[in-house]
Every structure is written in C-alpha cells, then in structure tokens.
What does this fold into?
Amino acid sequence: MSEPNIVVRDLTKKFGSFTAVDRISFEVPKGEIFGFLGPNGAGKSTTIRMLCGILQPTSGEARVGGFSVATESEEIKKIIGYMSQKFTLYNDLTVEENIDFHGGIRRLPSAVLAERKRWVLKMAGLVGRERTLARDLSGGWKQRLALGCAILHRPRIIFLDEPTASVDPASRRDFWDLIYELAGEGTTTFVTSHYMDEVERCHRLAIIYAGAIIALGSPRELKIRFAGAESASLEQVFVAAIRGARTA
Amino acid sequence: MLSVIRTILRKEFIQLLRDKRMILPLFIAPVIQLILFGFAVNTDIKNITLAVVDEDRTADSRAYINAFVRSGYFEIKAEPEAERDVDPLLARGAVQAAIVVPAEFGRKIAGREAAEALVLLDGTDSNTATIIQNYVEMVSSRFSETLIVRALGRSPGGFVSVEPRIWYNPELKTALWMVPGVICMILLVATLVLTAMAITREREMGTIEQLIVSPIKSYELILGKTLPFAIIGFCDVILVMTFGRIIFDVPIRGSVPFLLAMSLVFILTTLGVGLFISTISRTQSQAMMSAFSFIMPAIMLSGIFTSIDNMPMPVQYLTYLNPLRHFGKIVREVLLKGNGPAELWPDMFYLLAFGVATFVLASLRFHKRLE
Amino acid sequence: MIRRIGPLARKEAIHIRRDPRSLFLAIGLPIFMIVLFGYAITLDIKHVAIGVVDQDRTALSREFAAKLAASAYFDLKLTLDSPAGVEKLLDEGRVKAVVVFPSGFARDVAGRRDTSIQVLLDGSNNNTALIAMGYISRLFQKLATDLLAEQAAREGAAGSAAAGGGAVAPGSLPSVEPRIRVWYNPDLNSTDFIIPGLVAVVMMVMAGILTSLAIAREWETGTMEQLISSPVRAHEIVFGKLLPYFVLGLAQLALVVGTGTLLFGVPLRGNLFSLLVASSVFLLCGLGIGLFLSIVARTQQLAFMLAILLTLLPAFLLSGFMTPISSMPRIIQAFTYLIPARYFIIMVRGIFLKGFGFGDIWRELLLLAAFAAIVLTGCVRRLKLRLD
It folds into this structure.
C-alpha cells in the first residue's frame, strides 16, 4: 500500500460550546476514493474545510500530502483541489472566464492552461458553450465545470463537498465515472455525500454522525458488520450504524 | 394571517440583529448624523481670519482696524509689513481676508473726505466670501457713522436702526434647519435600503424559493418583510426627534401624533420603492446601487439641505414629484412653525397619493414575480 | 507573488462590466451631481420673497420700500397697510421676511429722532435669514448714512450761511469706503467653488461604496471559501480588487474635471499632472476605506451602511465641501483632521483656483499617501484567509 496521503488523528473542531467534529481519526492512502457519509450537520463540511487548510482545528492533527493542516496550510493549498458545497463558480462569468480565472490563480503557464482548458471543456461537455454565463448552466453542467476548475492544476488530492447535490442521476453517474478515471491516474479523492448509491462506489467510507465517526471501512465490510450480509443496502448499514450510535 | 406575519416578522428581526454590529448603522448612526448635521454644517460665519497691513499708523487707522475686531466676527491672524506679504497668506489659506489701510487714510478723514481701504477676500468659498463682504461693508458703514458723529461734534439724531425679529429660530441655529432634514433622510435610507436588501438577499441566497412554494400569501410576505423596517424607521424618527430636542433644543411646536402619522404615510412610499427595487434586482449589490441611485437625487432635490427657492424653475417643478420634498416640508413646519393639516394639506395629499400608488404598484409587481 | 493580481483584477473588471447598475451609478451619479450643483443648487441667495408693511405711507417709506423692490436680492411680493395677517404670511411661507415701517417714520427722521424699522424673518433656514438680514441691513444703513449726509449738508450750508462762509467745505463728511477685491473667484461664482469640491465628494463616495461590496459579497455568496482553498494571498486579493476600481475612479475624475471645465467653465489654473497625482492618492484612500469595511463587515448590508456613514457623510459635511471647517465647533474641527477629503479639497481647490503645483500641495500629498498606506496595510492584515 502506498504511503497514506491523508492522515487524521483525533481531529476536533469546537465552535464555542458546540462540538462539530469530535476526535475523528482515519487514513486515506494514495489513489483511494474515500467517502464521508452522514446526515446534514454531522460535521462533513467542517472536516473537509479543516483538511483543506481553510479552517483551523481546535485540537488533534491532520496531515494532507505530508503537510500539517494546522501549520502548513499554504503548502496544502498548493497541492489540493477543492470543490465547495455551493459555489465554485462565479455566476456572472462565462465558462471560459471561470476556467481562465482558476488557471490564473494557480499560475498555470499559458500553454498548460490552454491544454487543460480544452480538457475541461471536453470533460464537462461544454465545447461550444465557452461564452455561456455560468449562471445560465443547468445543474449537471455546472458541477462538471466546477470540478474542472477545481482540478485544472492536476492536484494529487481533491476534496469534493457534496459534489452532486441537485444533479440528475444520469449526470451523477457520469460524474462518478470521471472520479474513477482520476483515481486510476493516482488522484486521492475525499468526497462527502448523502447519496447512498454514490457512496457505494467509494473504495472506503466513513459514516459520521454528530461529529464522530461511527463506522469506517469498505462498503462490503460495513454491510457485513452492520447489516449482516454483503447484499444489504448501504441504507440499512446507515440506519443500523446510527441506531447503534444513539444507544451507545 | 396575523400569526404568519408575526412569524416572518420575528425571523426578519432575528436575521437583522444576528450581527450585533447592525445596531451601529440602525440606531447609533442616526444620532451621529444628527450631531454631524447639527454642529458641523454651520453657516454662521465667525472667527474670520484677517491679515492687516497698516500703512498709515494713525489713531484713525488703528480705530478702523479695531472696529473689525470689536465686531466679534473677525480675528487678526497676521500683521504683515507690506501689501505684498499678504499674497502668500491668502494663497495658503492662512487668512480669509486682508485689509490694507493706505498711508493717506488719516489725512483724508481729517480733511472730511472719503477715505478708502483695500480689502482682499479669498473668493474660493464664494458663500463665505459673500458673507464676509457683507460684514466688511457693515463694519465700515458703522465706522463711517462714528466719524460723522465726531465731525459734526454731536449726534445728529434721527438714527434709523434696523431691528431684526427672528421667528421660529430666534438664535438662528443651523440645527433647527438641519434636524428635520436629518429625520427625513434617516427614515428614507433606513426603510428603503433595508427593505430592498432584505428581500433581495433571500433571492440571492435562494431561500425565497422556500417561501414561494409555501402557502404564504403574497400580502403576508410583503407585510412581513416590510413591517420590521417600518418599525425600525419609526424608532429612528423618535430617536432623532428626542436627541434633537435634548442636544439642540429643536422645538416640537406642532402635533406629534400628526407628525408620526405623516411619517407612516411617507414610509409607505419608501417601502414601496424598496419593494420595487427588490423586484428588479437579482443580487444585493444591484439592490444597493439602485437604492443609492434613488436616494441621492431624492435628497439633493428635496429642499431639506439646500433651499428649493433658489433652483431654476423647471427644477423646482420637478421637485414636486419628490415625496421627500413634501415630507421634509411637513416635518420642518410641524416642528418649527407648529403648522398642521390646515397649512400642509397639499403636501399631505401628495404624500398620500404617492405612498398608496407606490406601495400598491410595487406589491402587485412583487406578487406577479412570486408566481 | 504578484502574478495572481492579474487574474484577480481581470475577474473583478468582468464583474463590474457585467453589472450595468454599478456602471450606471459610477458614471451616472457624477454626471447627475455636476449638473445638479452646476445648474440647480446654488448657495447664492437671491430673489428672496419679502413683504412690506408700510404703516407710515409717506414718500420716505415708499422710497425705502422701492429700494428693496429694486434690489436683485429681493422679490417684493406684497405691500400691506397693517401688520394684521403677517403671521399667516410667514407661517404659510409666502414670504421669508417682512419689513415693517412704523407710522411716523418719516416724521421721526425729519425731526432727527431715533427710529427703527422692524424686520420679521423666517428663521427656519438660518442661512437665508442671515444673508437676507445682511442685505437689508446694508441697504438701510446706506440709506440712513445718505440721509445723515444730506442733513449735515443742509446744516452745514445753513451754518456757514449764518457764520458767513466756513473754512470747511459744506456737505462733505468723512467716511470710509472699503474697496473690495475678490481673489481667485472674482465673480463669487459658487460653481467655481463647488465643482472642484465635487471631484472630492464623487470620488470618495463612489470609491467607498463600490468597493464596500467587493469582498463582503464573496464571503456572503461563498465564492471566497473557494478562493481561499487556493494558494492566493491576502495582498493579492486586496490589490486585485483595488485595481479595476482605481481605473474606474480615474475615469470618473476625467468625467468630472472635463464636464466642470468644459461645460461650466471652471478655471484650471494649476497643472493637470499634479491633479492626477493628488487624485490618485486620494482615490487609494477612498478605495482602501471601502475595502476595509468590506473585509471587516463580512455582510454586504453592514458594509454598505457603514460605507455610507463613513464615506458619504464625512465627504459632504466635514471636508469643507459646502460649509467651511473654520465655522465648526472646535471639537469637530479637530476631528476633521482624520478625514482624507479635507486635505484633498484643499489641494483640488488650490489646483483649480489658485494655480497650486507640487510645491504647494506636497504636505497634504504626503499625509494622504500615509493614510492610504496605513489603510491598505490594514486591509491586508485584516483579510483572514481562514473561515473562522
């Protein structure tokens, strides 16, 4: 197994007296697609934000790509791609302008940017729609463009926060095919979701509830452990895990 | 219906005051503005800085110069030796005016002739310069009178004095003109901007969709969204009036209930405009720019800070369309002159007409957008 | 490190371009203000509506009244015989002042008894009242002095006739005539006074208000969160946002100066280059303030309302734009030292009307440069690229 790309140990985030993330620990090796499943408010977004280096942890430690989130966030930002929950894109900029902007922010040389732009446009199916305002794109196109902008600089590690919210199932499927492609190239993917069928496609996943991880393993392992059978649905796993956490 | 409105009202207040710092622009800023307008915008010209060059150096020239100081309006800041030393003083703005008494001053007076003194004014600020000019002529005129008395050996009698009797504002305090204006301005800005932004913010954030799919009726939504700001505006009016009274002794000679009732009518207009702006704006930024584009002309063409009487006639006619003009007049005359419906009914009529029309039209448009 | 400013500035420029309302405001408002102040708003008080109550009805009282009516400063609206109804006139605002000649006025003057003319003034607008009072006083004072001179002349003639011719020329009396010369603005044109100041006000307001939304908007819509996950630095964001608004501000400068000089004939006696430098530094101050508010406020609503409070009001009221700082209470005068517009107005009026050059404005220039540096440094420091 290659050296873990994301290492999290007892990571905690408190907002005043409210504990959003409570001593979570896990590791994500290189090239893995790691899912974070949980109800709203469980702490998914908070976790992602800490790992991206844009939110300071209260205690515990995490290392992304070998860098500490607490002290070396600048280095982390260079090597990751982040797709935030709602708005990666600037609504009043066109498709092309959004891509150019993100490329400029990442200081991609113009030749590289041109090539990557072609790739993103093809990947997102937006060839010919470069001059469309981001605002005028429907959900599926938007998300693909957002992903494209997030990975323009070919980051080794990408963080996707609810990337397929409000996107139709067909587009979701295409999106995940893309993720697999990237994983195949060695990209480590950390993705949060509340869609069971999607999370099924992760290599491993963690179920987070009330700030704590209540289950961790591959989908197959979790099905056996919580629902008794490999054929069980993740939904059952989810319900069982949460019930278990509540009674604990 | 009432409970729905109450629910929306509560949410609005919670959202508005979530950031405690909003207290600053909502309630503290009006008082600050009151103080600024009342004190800073002072058109009483005093402490006029003066440079004097006395080339004559006789008792008469000294007496003349002294007359300026004794008038209480002037302050001698420099006494240069020669006229050319005055140039840099005026240029730098170290003095606002300079008097050069020529060498033959005393001789001419003794010979019962008209003596001249050269007075240089910094005309950059034309308003102040005009007033200074008035003072200079007044002081010189009075001094001439004393010369005449002296020359004739006795008071000739038959002096005609001019006795001013100032109504409504006996001490001629700027505050009394400004405070009513501040009340109007604050009411306008608070109710208009907050309403426009509150509704637009929901549109920007996407939360307005929730409201659209809920069984809330349009008018419940409208009332819920506009009432909080009407209430805040109202509080601001009372706040400014009270502090105006305390700090500046601004009188309240007319009927307070009448004034508050008129404020309500005015609020109808501003809420209507705010509502309208929210229907044409997608982002808060647009709402703010639109609101500002309305507020600036409204204030400048309302007569609350600059007098309408001196504007060109076409512009004066234009101001009749400005609800702020009518409200400003009402506030000022109720406070200072004790006027009431008997004198102000035309403005009341305008205000009511504007208010109802604006609010109804805006509501209709809002209703249509919501569907 | 500086290379990210390019894409950031370009993005901001696109935002501005795609937001027609900001542009409309940025161009439209200055034009509106200039036209307004150039044509409509004047501080010169003329054609004040007055009324006369002539209880004397003699040739003398009518002569005085006629002088009033003939003056360009007044519009004689009505002449009454008795003071009844005067109160209503003033209440209704039909006249702003009423001059009352008492009965027996002419008799008293001829009999060399002291007499007085009452002037009732509507003090609501104290500026108008003060100036109107000044005009009336001056007018009557002159008339009174002339009367005195006539009387003295008659006496002198009578006296010298009685004494068989006097040594002193009869009919001549000593007097002092001030010869008034107005510098820089000989016609006391209030446009020449106002429009240079308008440059300051327009720039400060626009700079402050437009930028106040710039950063708060990104926080509120969530795009800032996305931005800070990249290696972008605080100073790159600040200057990237600053640049397009700076260019816009210079465009506004050109607009106001162009309109002012070409349309309204305001003289530009100093040189354009010093105006450009001074304006640029001032612009940086305004932009810095706006950005700082945007960073500190975090919501657009708060930022906007604070911007109005901290840029518009001081620029209009405390900078010397319309009312002189020297007339303000000492405490407030001290406070104005903190306001950039104060220094800029001195510079800009000096450049336009007094022909100032760098040698005259370097003190204010340095001060403003320091202010801009402090504010912009504050922006960079305060812009936290973290979510909490």
About this structure: The first strand of chain A starts at residue 4 and ends at 15.
